[in-house]
Protein backbone atom coordinates (compact mmCIF):
# COMPACT_ATOMS: atom_id res chain seq x y z
CA UNK A 1 0.00 0.00 0.00
CA UNK A 2 1.10 3.55 -0.73
CA UNK A 3 2.34 5.17 2.48
CA UNK A 4 0.20 8.22 3.23
CA UNK A 5 1.30 10.81 5.74
CA UNK A 6 -0.98 10.69 8.84
CA UNK A 7 -1.40 14.48 8.63
CA UNK A 8 -2.90 14.12 5.14
CA UNK A 9 -5.25 11.42 6.42
CA UNK A 10 -6.22 13.68 9.33
CA UNK A 11 -7.25 16.60 7.11
CA UNK A 12 -8.83 14.36 4.50
CA UNK A 13 -10.98 12.73 7.20
CA UNK A 14 -12.23 16.17 8.25
CA UNK A 15 -12.94 17.68 4.82
CA UNK A 16 -12.67 15.49 1.72
CA UNK A 17 -13.69 12.14 3.22
CA UNK A 18 -16.02 13.42 5.93
CA UNK A 19 -17.99 10.51 7.42
CA UNK A 20 -21.32 12.34 7.12
CA UNK A 21 -20.87 14.39 3.97
CA UNK A 22 -18.97 11.84 1.87
CA UNK A 23 -20.01 8.48 3.27
CA UNK A 24 -23.37 9.38 4.86
CA UNK A 25 -22.54 7.45 8.04
CA UNK A 26 -24.00 8.54 11.38
CA UNK A 27 -26.94 10.34 9.81
CA UNK A 28 -29.61 9.45 12.42
CA UNK A 29 -27.99 11.31 15.32
CA UNK A 30 -26.81 14.03 12.89
CA UNK A 31 -30.42 14.79 11.93
CA UNK A 32 -31.91 14.30 15.39
CA UNK A 33 -29.46 16.22 17.59
CA UNK A 34 -28.53 19.11 15.30
CA UNK A 35 -31.20 21.55 16.50
CA UNK A 36 -28.97 23.38 19.05
CA UNK A 37 -25.29 24.27 18.75
CA UNK A 38 -24.48 23.54 22.39
CA UNK A 39 -25.98 20.04 22.34
CA UNK A 40 -24.46 19.30 18.92
CA UNK A 41 -21.03 20.38 20.07
CA UNK A 42 -21.30 18.20 23.17
CA UNK A 43 -22.37 15.17 21.15
CA UNK A 44 -19.61 15.89 18.63
CA UNK A 45 -17.03 15.95 21.40
CA UNK A 46 -18.35 12.65 22.79
CA UNK A 47 -18.31 11.06 19.32
CA UNK A 48 -14.76 12.32 18.69
CA UNK A 49 -13.60 10.95 22.03
CA UNK A 50 -15.23 7.55 21.44
CA UNK A 51 -14.03 7.42 17.82
CA UNK A 52 -10.44 8.15 18.76
CA UNK A 53 -10.17 5.54 21.46
CA UNK A 54 -12.27 2.82 19.82
CA UNK A 55 -10.23 3.15 16.63
CA UNK A 56 -7.05 2.56 18.61
CA UNK A 57 -8.59 -0.27 20.63
CA UNK A 58 -9.99 -1.95 17.53
CA UNK A 59 -6.64 -1.58 15.74
CA UNK A 60 -4.87 -3.37 18.61
CA UNK A 61 -7.57 -6.03 18.96
CA UNK A 62 -7.48 -6.74 15.23
CA UNK A 63 -3.70 -6.85 14.76
CA UNK A 64 -2.68 -8.40 18.09
CA UNK A 65 -5.56 -10.82 18.77
CA UNK A 66 -7.74 -11.54 15.72
CA UNK A 67 -5.00 -11.81 13.06
CA UNK A 68 -2.61 -14.03 15.10
CA UNK A 69 -5.50 -16.36 15.96
CA UNK A 70 -6.71 -16.38 12.34
CA UNK A 71 -10.21 -15.20 13.28
CA UNK A 72 -10.31 -11.89 11.40
CA UNK A 73 -13.76 -12.79 10.12
CA UNK A 74 -15.11 -12.03 13.63
CA UNK A 75 -14.05 -8.38 13.37
CA UNK A 76 -17.60 -7.05 12.93
CA UNK A 77 -18.79 -8.63 16.17
CA UNK A 78 -15.63 -7.84 18.12
CA UNK A 79 -15.52 -4.21 16.93
CA UNK A 80 -19.16 -3.69 17.96
CA UNK A 81 -18.46 -5.19 21.41
CA UNK A 82 -15.44 -2.91 21.90
CA UNK A 83 -17.43 0.16 20.79
CA UNK A 84 -20.40 -0.74 23.03
CA UNK A 85 -18.23 -1.34 26.09
CA UNK A 86 -16.28 1.88 25.62
CA UNK A 87 -19.44 3.93 25.00
CA UNK A 88 -21.01 2.57 28.19
CA UNK A 89 -17.92 3.65 30.08
CA UNK A 90 -18.14 7.16 28.61
CA UNK A 91 -21.86 7.31 29.40
CA UNK A 92 -21.25 6.41 33.05
CA UNK A 93 -18.51 9.06 33.35
CA UNK A 94 -20.72 11.78 31.78
CA UNK A 95 -23.65 10.75 34.01
CA UNK A 96 -21.44 10.96 37.09
CA UNK A 97 -19.53 14.17 36.40
CA UNK A 98 -21.68 16.10 33.84
CA UNK A 99 -25.34 15.40 34.72
CA UNK A 100 -26.65 18.43 32.79
CA UNK A 101 -24.92 17.26 29.62
CA UNK A 102 -26.13 13.71 30.29
CA UNK A 103 -29.75 14.84 30.37
CA UNK A 104 -29.29 17.17 27.36
CA UNK A 105 -27.98 14.32 25.22
CA UNK A 106 -30.69 11.97 26.50
CA UNK A 107 -31.18 8.83 24.43
CA UNK A 108 -28.60 9.89 21.87
CA UNK A 109 -25.68 9.22 24.17
CA UNK A 110 -26.30 5.45 24.27
CA UNK A 111 -26.96 5.67 20.54
CA UNK A 112 -23.28 6.49 20.01
CA UNK A 113 -22.91 2.73 20.37
CA UNK A 114 -24.82 2.18 17.16
CA UNK A 115 -23.44 5.25 15.36
CA UNK A 116 -22.36 3.60 12.14
CA UNK A 117 -19.66 6.27 11.61
CA UNK A 118 -17.72 4.75 14.52
CA UNK A 119 -17.92 1.21 13.17
CA UNK A 120 -17.23 2.57 9.68
CA UNK A 121 -13.97 4.20 10.75
CA UNK A 122 -12.75 0.94 12.32
CA UNK A 123 -13.63 -1.03 9.19
CA UNK A 124 -12.14 1.55 6.78
CA UNK A 125 -8.95 1.48 8.85
CA UNK A 126 -8.64 -2.28 8.25
CA UNK A 127 -9.71 -2.18 4.59
CA UNK A 128 -7.22 0.60 3.79
CA UNK A 129 -4.47 -1.21 5.73
CA UNK A 130 -3.56 1.80 7.87
CA UNK A 131 -0.76 1.55 10.42
CA UNK A 132 -1.24 2.72 14.03
CA UNK A 133 -0.41 6.41 13.42
CA UNK A 134 -2.53 6.53 10.29
CA UNK A 135 -5.41 4.92 12.18
CA UNK A 136 -5.09 7.43 15.01
CA UNK A 137 -5.09 10.34 12.55
CA UNK A 138 -8.09 8.84 10.74
CA UNK A 139 -10.02 8.35 14.00
CA UNK A 140 -9.39 11.85 15.35
CA UNK A 141 -9.96 13.48 11.96
CA UNK A 142 -13.20 11.59 11.40
CA UNK A 143 -14.48 12.64 14.82
CA UNK A 144 -13.61 16.28 14.19
CA UNK A 145 -15.18 16.09 10.73
CA UNK A 146 -18.36 14.64 12.21
CA UNK A 147 -18.38 17.41 14.82
CA UNK A 148 -17.80 20.09 12.17
CA UNK A 149 -20.73 18.81 10.13
CA UNK A 150 -23.21 18.55 13.02
CA UNK A 151 -22.28 21.94 14.54
CA UNK A 152 -22.55 23.60 11.13
CA UNK A 153 -25.97 22.02 10.66
CA UNK A 154 -27.04 23.18 14.13
CA UNK A 155 -25.96 26.73 13.32
CA UNK A 156 -27.92 26.75 10.09
CA UNK A 157 -31.02 25.26 11.77
CA UNK A 158 -30.89 27.87 14.53
CA UNK A 159 -30.59 30.61 11.89
CA UNK A 160 -33.64 29.43 9.95
CA UNK A 161 -35.72 28.56 13.04
CA UNK A 162 -37.75 31.78 12.99
CA UNK A 163 -37.92 32.16 9.22
CA UNK A 164 -41.00 31.22 7.22
CA UNK A 165 -40.64 27.77 5.65
CA UNK A 166 -43.33 26.03 3.58
CA UNK A 167 -45.28 23.59 5.76
CA UNK A 168 -44.20 20.54 3.78
CA UNK A 169 -40.52 21.32 4.28
CA UNK A 170 -40.53 21.98 8.03
CA UNK A 171 -38.49 19.72 10.30
CA UNK A 172 -36.66 16.80 8.67
CA UNK A 173 -37.53 17.98 5.15
CA UNK A 174 -35.54 21.21 5.29
CA UNK A 175 -32.80 19.44 7.30
CA UNK A 176 -32.29 16.89 4.53
CA UNK A 177 -32.21 19.62 1.88
CA UNK A 178 -29.59 21.53 3.88
CA UNK A 179 -27.62 18.29 4.34
CA UNK A 180 -27.58 17.80 0.57
CA UNK A 181 -26.37 21.36 0.02
CA UNK A 182 -23.68 20.91 2.69
CA UNK A 183 -22.55 17.66 1.02
CA UNK A 184 -22.19 19.57 -2.25
CA UNK A 185 -20.09 22.19 -0.44
CA UNK A 186 -17.84 19.46 1.01
CA UNK A 187 -17.38 18.04 -2.50
CA UNK A 188 -15.65 21.32 -3.24
CA UNK A 189 -12.83 20.16 -0.95
CA UNK A 190 -12.39 16.86 -2.80
CA UNK A 191 -9.77 18.22 -5.19
CA UNK A 192 -7.44 19.02 -2.30
CA UNK A 193 -6.57 15.47 -1.23
CA UNK A 194 -8.04 11.97 -1.52
CA UNK A 195 -7.21 9.03 0.72
CA UNK A 196 -9.03 6.20 -1.06
Describe the structure.
By secondary structure, this protein is mainly alpha-helical. The chain is 69% helix and 0% strand. It has eight helices and no strands. The model has no long low-confidence stretch (mean pLDDT 87).
Secondary-structure map:
Layout: H1 6-14, H2 27-32, H3 37-69, H4 75-97, H5 99-105, H6 116-127, H7 132-160, H8 172-187
Helix pairs in contact: 1-7, 3-4, 3-6, 3-7, 4-5, 4-6, 6-7, 7-8
Q: Report low-confidence residues grouped into runs of 5 or more.
A: none
Approximate helicity band: 55-70%
The main pleated sheet reads as:
none
First-residue to last-residue Cα separation: 11 Å
Number of alpha- plus pi-helical segments: 8
Indicate the mean pLDDT. Answer: 87
Radius of gyration: 17 Å
The tally of strands reads 0
SSE series: HHHHHHHH
Which structural class do the helices and strands define?
mainly alpha
Shape: globular
Short account of what is shown:
The chain has 196 residues and is mainly alpha-helical. It has helices spanning 6-14, 27-32, 37-69, 75-97, 99-105, 116-127, 132-160, 172-187. The longest helix is centred in the first third of the chain and has 33 residues, at 37-69.
Please name the defining characteristics of this protein.
single chain; 196 residues; mainly alpha; 69% helix
Amino acid sequence: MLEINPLIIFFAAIFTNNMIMSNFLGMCSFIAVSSEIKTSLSLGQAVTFVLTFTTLLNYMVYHYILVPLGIEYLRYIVFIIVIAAFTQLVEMIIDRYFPTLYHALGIFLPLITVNCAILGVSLFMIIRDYNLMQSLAFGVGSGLGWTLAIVTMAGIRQKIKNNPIPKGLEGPGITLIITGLMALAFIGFSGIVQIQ
